[in-house]
């Protein structure tokens, strides 16, 4: 078994991430998810590493790959959605599984200039719209759909 497949063994998506997102696809390291909140173009990258909790605890190769995938995700959001800033965050206080938020922000969005999480501003995508957005992001990233 190669190193990558061995590292993925036992990987599962935290139930809260699964409940709050729409699958986009798979990159070399990360599962890419779209947060089900149409108010903000918002991706979540989840490294497929069982037990991963902290960015600094990833092995150096995985850590470097995650940073590259964060940059790709930010580039996708900039290319597909008008934005003034891209926020990156890895908090993990409610969901301990390592995951990185990549969020396109605009000066006129409802949570600006504060963080989007905990802002009270959330609106799920209408039926089919979230899947369409996820498809556009997957096509831009060139990643296979994970649903």
UniProtKB/TrEMBL annotation:
UniProt domain HIT: residue ranges: 43-112
InterPro entries: HIT-like, HIT-like_sf, HIT_Hint
Gene3D superfamilies: HIT-like
Coiled-coil boundaries: none
GO MF annotations, alphabetized: catalytic activity
Superkingdom of the source species: Bacteria
Protein name (database record): HIT domain-containing protein
Gene source species: Aerophototrophica crusticola
């Amino acid at each position: 078994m190669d190193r990558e497949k061995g590292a993925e063994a036992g990987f599962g998506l935290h139930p809260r991430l699964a409940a709050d997102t729409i699958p986009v696809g798979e990159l070399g390291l990360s599962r890419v998810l779209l947060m089900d909140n149409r108010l903000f173009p918002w991706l979540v990258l989840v490294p497929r590493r069982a037990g991963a909790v902290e960015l600094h605890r990833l092995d150096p190769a995985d850590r470097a790959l995650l940073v590259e995938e964060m940059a790709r995700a930010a580039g996708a959001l900039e290319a597909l959605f008008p934005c003034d800033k891209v926020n990156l965050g890895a908090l993990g206080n409610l969901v301990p599984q390592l995951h990185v938020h990549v969020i396109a922000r605009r000066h006129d969005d409802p949570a600006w200039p504060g963080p989007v999480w905990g802002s009270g501003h959330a609106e799920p995508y209408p039926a089919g719209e979230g899947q369409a957005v996820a498809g556009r992001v997957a096509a831009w990233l060139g990643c296979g759909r994970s649903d």
